[in-house]
Design goal:
The protein has 485 residues and is mostly helical. It is 77% helix and 0% strand. The protein contains 20 helices and no strands. It is globular.
């Protein structure tokens, strides 16, 4: 598809892109200590955090998968996105006040103050496991796409691609950490949105549509269906999707150190709340653009008399058949989307390990070594996935990540909405048993009742953890715990 010269141009563009990221990191951070790396000295402008979080919330996998959703479930994903808005409001006015009042570096420290040390370590460990495996799986998918489009033609081995990419992330995050990401994420959000709009504009041109005609054509297409109210058993039922969207945000943003770390760098609680609500609302039109692109790609395939690629193959199939006008923005967009999520994941993993697991928040030497070690581990795991070369393994990783967030929901809900003191010794066992029980319920329900759980399994998981903690609890918490709650 691409000539040698075209591929060279793409490599140059990617290198220039990273050079800009590195330059931003140098300008943003002059003198850095652990407080800079972990909390950006609590001096981040809220509007900058809000804009950057749009890109941080959209991974490279999202860039590929969301357009392809229309071939399977039309535009019903918007029901979940509408639930996101309410979820962000809950995070802004329920969780953020708690985190700011306790002046937390990591959100899991709350569990230690309210529930006990084992609950604290358990919550942090679930985050480390889920975030590392999930981030690696997402990054692997993106590296495979770049390898397919660019580096295979150059004869560059996959191991070199992954190593160089992660090394570049380490290079611009190693000093300033989260303070650097507040600025680089804003740049990467611009790149992602511009790339998305350029691809949409290119498809519109091929369809011979103006902007107003495009809106009308999408609205009239059979794949434009957004709402499902009539089928309660469907996974696309509005209330299932909407409520799932609410809880997805509460758990995977409000109870996730990666997502919350940048939000807690704002100067005041008020600014953090404005940041959270702003990008929570912005998330809806951005996903609407991705879904609209999916509808346009289906229309284009039909117009050209081609078979419509299904799911995650929809956008890559179009890119492979296109020219440099779509390949370059696609490459920049997917790199921006994937790296804005990968760099924050690596930074939050470093923060949680140093602060939560090792209790060494002031040890700069350990923080530098940990950050490097996590980057190396990241590379090793990506290469391991490549060695296994199995899509089913990646799917299993994503499913596992979904299960591991449920116990966090149960732990935080118990701490915030009850006055009781749990049996801290049993908390690790409860948090392991709850996802296993959810898995068994899902299998039995599918086999004997014909009901397949979707995102609502997260709510069930959290409820089981909450009930088990409640059954093992006693009296009221100690004075110190009451203060934290």
């Amino acid at each position: 598809m691409c000539t040698f010269a075209a591929i060279m141009w793409m490599i140059v563009i990617i290198l220039v892109y990273f050079a800009i990221l590195y330059g931003i990191s140098r300008l943003a951070v002059h003198r850095a200590d652990n407080d800079t790396f972990f909390r950006a000295n609590r001096q981040s402008p809220w509007y900058l955090v809000a804009f950057g979080m749009i890109g941080a919330s959209i991974s490279g996998v999202t860039f590929i998968s969301v357009p392809g959703m229309v071939t399977r479930v039309d535009m019903t994903y918007m029901q979940t996105c509408l639930g996101f808005i309410l979820g962000y409001v809950v995070v802004a006015f329920v969780l953020l006040p708690l985190y700011y009042r306790l002046n937390l570096t990591t959100i899991y420290a709350y569990l230690g103050q309210r529930l006990g040390p084992r609950s604290y370590k358990t919550g942090a460990s679930f985050f480390l496991l889920s975030k590392m495996t999930g981030a690696v799986a997402r990054f692997y998918v993106v590296c495979m796409i770049l390898q397919r489009f660019v580096f295979d033609a150059m004869g560059v081995p996959f191991a070199a691609t992954v190593t160089v990419m992660v090394a570049l992330i380490w290079l611009y995050t190693r000093r300033g950490g989260i303070k650097t990401l507040v600025w680089t994420d804003s740049f990467q959000t611009v790149c992602m949105l511009v790339a998305l709009l350029l691809i949409i504009y290119k498809v519109m041109g091929q369809l011979g549509l103006t902007w107003s005609q495009t809106v009308s054509a999408i609205a009239a297409d059979e794949h434009s269906r957004m709402f499902v109210f009539d089928d309660w058993l469907s996974r696309q039922n509005f209330w299932k999707q909407f409520l799932s969207g609410v809880f997805i945000v509460i758990v995977m943003t409000g109870l996730d150190q990666d997502m919350m770390q940048k939000n807690m760098t704002c100067k005041t609680l008020r600014e953090a709340q404005k940041d959270m609500c702003s990008y929570g609302v912005a998330f809806v039109p951005v996903n609407l653009l991705f879904l609209s692109l999916g509808v346009l790609l289906v229309m284009l395939a039909r117009q050209q008399g081609q078979a419509v690629a299904v799911g995650d193959e929809l956008l890559p199939t179009y890119i492979l058949q296109g020219d440099m006008a779509v390949l370059i923005p696609f490459s920049i967009g997917i790199v921006a989307a994937s790296f804005s999520s990968a760099d924050s994941a690596l930074t939050s993993l470093t923060t949680s390990y140093c602060v939560d697991i090792r209790d060494r928040a002031d040890d700069e030497r350990m923080r530098r070594r940990t950050h490097l070690a996590i980057c190396v581990l990241f590379v090793v795991l990506v290469l391991l996935f490549h060695l296994l070369n199995s899509t089913s393994v990646i799917d299993a990783i994503f499913i596992m990540c979904g299960y591991t967030y449920g116990p966090l929901l149960g732990l935080f809900a118990f701490g915030m909405f009850t006055k009781r003191h749990p049996d801290d010794r049993r908390a690790p066992y409860i948090c392991v048993a709850s996802p296993l029980l959810c898995y068994a319920i899902d299998m039995l329900s599918s086999r004997y009742l014909g009901y397949v759980f979707g995102y609502e399994l997260l709510m069930l998981n959290g409820a089981l953890t909450f009930m088990a903690l409640l059954l093992c609890s006693r009296g009221t918490p100690s004075a110190g715990c009451r203060t934290a709650s």
